[in-house]
Design a protein that fits this description.
7-stranded parallel sheet; 6-stranded mixed sheet; alpha/beta; about 900 residues
């Protein structure tokens, strides 16, 4: 069943994605491989080779089988050995969790000819290179795979500024410093937990010493004192990173952690959700009290208790949050967010904390993500629900990854995976000694490789405990741990600190058992020579034998390796404010701040709105109707009785967008969906009122889609395959000023309000409600739900022209025409404006009905315009005109 599912569901999933026009990165890889190998395009590989006759792929040890198959299908290896160059170091293959497959690299290496080696190390100083050679030469089979070996390297030609240490004698100038886990006089070793604690304390203490000596210029790098930014602590897990950061903070040492944790998994995301919930509903007392209890607003327990019993204070807080709510609705999330931070003293409160920079960075990161999302979901309630969903799912991805809280000169804490490819002057590896091996949890299948190196997904229950699979998986995990150790040790430029040795555990081997530590991969590297890894795991090496092997490494690497007992003394805290606490002063503010490069819109040009999507013109600013009273003879289900305002406009747009014009049976579903997305208030909440709203919208669709428009166009004859909804565009505008655009409007006879926007340098963007094709010509259509009155007279040409002029819609129509003109020029072969572009319709849909016609037979509620090619060319030139130097 599982095999059948794997064979069938992948193909079905690809079919569904193609049908929905959804594609991901993995899909692109599969599509490329399939196009090269399915035989339907035998010319494709040769065509790609002719376009790219040679390819060089770096970090090839991180490839996966599908990527490798694509490259081989294009270039081959034996047939065209000189056209494909792959560069990789199998000792640095540590990304198996991202589907990188080391066995794929090894297979490719076997097929490659000839194979070369890079034997010069351009990163580290010669002494550290010699020390590393001595360590990895101790066990020739240390990397566990026969095709992965360590070759001694030499120093490259790159010149490095000197690291000079005058704090210690010349005999201690060893670049590789190994700290041995201690034992007492009875030969008893630390427990694993105590060893962790001591490694953390010793690392923090030594970093404090280095920084103090650097402050006194007794340790210098390139003739200046050693600083925090020169030091990195490499860890395997974020938990270990937090241990180090807390220990450094206790000694007044600032540090930053390179983390892949999601911003939505932080306490700051939870607290921000509480604050935003209170701003959205400030009158709800429980939400207000929850908000003021957060560290953003900072009331203490006693203050909250006093506030809960003080109606006047509660009213003041409610009023403050209500003002923020009004700002949110009127000007958008970003404006409200910055106002909240400033008026509520959030920055001062957070930055006064020891972890203030971290917390402030998180808050600003969340604000940026919410502001960006508000462009798609301007409704505050929807935005808050999005935040709650992201928190519940701990949403990940590059945008959600925690950012560095500071670029000041601080100690860097990074996982080994994150540090790959980087280099640091001084590196600490405090946890490489830990011998605990635990495979990553896999709920549905286990992963391993067979004897031929093929990746296997084993779904069988209990397969992980089978005698031939369990040791195979342990061996693969140990091999990856060795590679992690190699990557960590080779990040250092001048000096590397390594903790090694044995420790005790309390497991089935008895209290104080050393078995786990004597089988650790770090001790395997030092003392495993001459035995297979399986034998190493079974044979009980003594701690004395292992320590003797470490001493041999010291002798082989002399004088570049120093082995000493791990320091047990607590570090000396740095004086408060010693590092990077120099006085700051603000520059004088400029007289004028240039707006800079930005993206504008029609709404921003016409009204100065800064929150484009929330200030959509869907019935947002309807001119006053000529007749306010509802006529007695107006049918109950007439669309003129439908609610007004932006939400009603969004609902009408959604109904047209989701309806298949040619299929009336689809209209009811479109109407229901539109009302679900944009519910409309009624005088009563009965089901009859909701049913009446559905009836209104159905009648609207029937009227508008069946009304013959100018040119004989009937929308009910436009199939879904001949229309595009919400076509987005960006028009380049290097220097667009209000004066020049006003002059263009006058010169071309467009009636519009006088524009007074700040000069735009950047792009104009927008979304066109509908672009459709009819009889070979393409038309733009904009739905207008403005309520102009209750009679047919209110939708005659004069009233429509007044609405168009008041809102400057003619300019919008010209911009839409230019956008579609450019779009068709790129997409339609042989495109000609005169032949293919039909014009622009603005339909004030409440007045568009088959029976409402003027004396010339033109339907009411409609405005049609087709700019001349010369007019459109002049607008194109206006937008593209570069800035003229003063």
């Amino acid at each position: 069943l599982l095999r059948q599912m794997a064979e069938e569901t992948l193909a079905r999933l690809r079919q569904k994605k193609r049908a929905q026009r959804v594609i991901g990165f993995d899909d692109m890889l599969y599509n490329a491989w399939d196009a090269l190998c399915n035989g339907a395009r035998p010319w494709l590989a040769a065509e790609l080779r002719s376009r790219y006759p040679a390819a060089l792929i770096d970090e090839f040890q991180d490839t996966d089988p599908l990527q490798c198959a694509i490259f081989f299908a294009i270039y081959g290896l034996r047939e065209t050995p000189a056209t494909l160059f792959i560069v990789g170091d199998p000792k640095q293959a540590i990304y198996s969790f991202r589907n990188a497959d080391l066995h794929t690299y090894l297979s490719a290496k076997e097929r490659a000819q000839p194979a070369g080696a890079l034997l010069a190390n351009q990163r580290s100083v010669p002494g550290l290179i010699e020390a590393t050679n001595a360590l990895f030469a101790a066990n020739p089979g240390g990397f566990l795979l026969p095709d992965v070996t360590y070759q001694a390297v030499r120093a490259g030609d790159r010149k490095r500024p000197p690291l000079v240490d005058r704090s210690e004698g010349a005999a201690k100038e060893a670049p590789l410093r190994i700290w041995r886990l201690p034992s007492n006089s009875q030969g008893e070793y630390l427990s694993r937990d105590d060893a962790h604690a001591l490694a953390v304390r010793a690392t923090a203490a030594e970093i404090a010493r280095l920084l103090q000596e650097g402050e006194q210029n007794r340790i210098t790098l390139d003739a200046r004192g050693l600083r925090g930014g020169d030091i990195a602590v490499l860890v395997r897990t974020h938990r270990q990173g937090r241990w180090i950061k807390e220990a450094l903070a206790a000694l007044n040492i600032g540090a930053v952690e390179l983390s892949q944790e999601s911003i939505f998994a932080t306490r700051d995301a939870e607290d921000l959700e509480r604050v935003l919930s209170s701003i959205l509903e400030p009158a709800r007392r429980p939400r207000l009290l929850a908000a003021v209890a957060t560290e953003f607003l900072g009331l203490a327990a006693g203050e909250i208790e006093a506030l809960a019993g003080d109606d006047a204070s509660l009213a003041a807080w409610t009023a403050k949050l209500d003002e923020l709510r009004s700002s949110w609705f009127a000007r958008g999330f970003g404006v409200m967010f910055r106002r909240w931070i400033e008026e509520c003293g959030v920055s001062e409160r957070l930055l006064a904390r020891a972890d203030g920079e971290r917390r402030m960075t998180n808050l600003l990161h969340l604000g940026e993500l919410l502001h960006r999302k508000s462009q798609e979901q301007p409704a505050p309630g929807a935005l808050l629900r999005w935040l709650a969903t992201q928190r519940a799912e701990a949403a990940s991805g590059e945008e959600a990854q925690l950012r560095l809280e500071s670029d000041r000169n601080l100690v860097q804490i990074a996982t080994i995976h994150k540090a790959k490819g980087l280099e640091y002057p001084v590196v600490f590896c405090p946890f490489a000694w830990d011998g605990y091996l635990q495979p990553r949890p896999q709920s549905y299948a286990i992963e391993y490789h067979d004897d031929e190196g093929n990746a296997v997904l084993d779904f069988r229950p209990g397969a992980s405990k089978e005698p031939d699979i369990q040791p195979r998986r342990r061996r693969e995990l140990a091999a990856e741990r060795v590679r992690l150790t190699y990557v960590a040790l080779t990040r250092a430029i001048y000096r590397c600190y390594l903790v090694a040795g044995c420790y005790g555990t309390s497991n089935r081997g008895g209290a104080g058992s050393l078995r786990e530590s004597t089988r650790s991969v770090l001790n395997w590297l030092a003392a495993g020579a001459g035995s297979a890894y399986e034998e190493w795991c079974e044979h009980k090496r003594t701690a004395a034998e292992i320590e003797g092997s470490w001493q041999q490494i010291v002798e082989a690497g002399a004088p570049h390796v120093l082995l000493s007992e791990m320091p047990v003394a607590r570090g000396t805290a740095l004086p408060t404010g010693m590092a990077d606490r120099k006085g700051l002063s603000a520059l004088s503010p400029p007289r004028r701040i240039d707006a800079g490069w930005r993206i504008g819109s029609f709404s921003a040009l016409a009204t100065g709105a800064s929150h484009e999507r929330a200030a959509s013109d869907h019935d947002a600013r309807a001119i006053a109707p000529a007749q306010i009273a509802v006529p007695d003879d107006l049918p109950e289900h007439d669309i003129l009785r439908f609610p007004r305002g932006p939400s009603a406009g969004d609902c009408v747009h959604a109904a047209f967008e989701r309806a298949d014009f040619t299929d009336p049976t689809s209209w009811e579903g479109a109407v229901k969906r539109a009302l679900a997305l944009h519910p409309q208030r009624a005088r009563d909440a009965s089901g009859a009122a909701a049913a009446l709203q559905r009836k209104m919208l159905l009648a609207l669709l029937d009227d508008v889609l069946k009304t013959p428009l100018p040119g004989g166009i009937v929308l009910a004859q436009v199939p879904a395959t001949r229309r595009l909804n919400e076509l987005g565009f960006h028009l380049r505008a290097p220097e667009l000023s209000a004066a020049r655009l006003n002059a263009w409007l006058r010169a071309n006879g467009y009636a519009a309000p006088r524009l007074a926007f700040e000069a735009l340098r950047g792009y104009l963007n927008g979304y066109i409600d509908l672009v459709f094709e009819f009889d070979g010509r393409f038309f733009v259509l904009d739905w207008k739900s403005n309520h102009l009155g209750f009679t047919r007279e209110d939708y005659r040409a004069g009233r429509i022209a007044g609405a168009m002029q008041e809102h400057g819609y003619a300019l919008q129509a010209a911009l839409y025409s230019l956008a579609v003109h450019r779009y068709l020029g790129q997409r339609l072969r042989g495109y000609d404006y005169e032949r293919h572009f039909g014009g622009v319709f603005y339909l004030f849909v409440r007045g568009v009905r088959p029976g409402w016609l003027d004396a010339d037979g033109v339907p009411l509620g409609t405005w049609f315009h087709r700019a001349s090619a010369q007019t459109l060319a002049s607008l194109d030139a206006l937008l593209e005109a570069p800035r003229v130097a003063a």
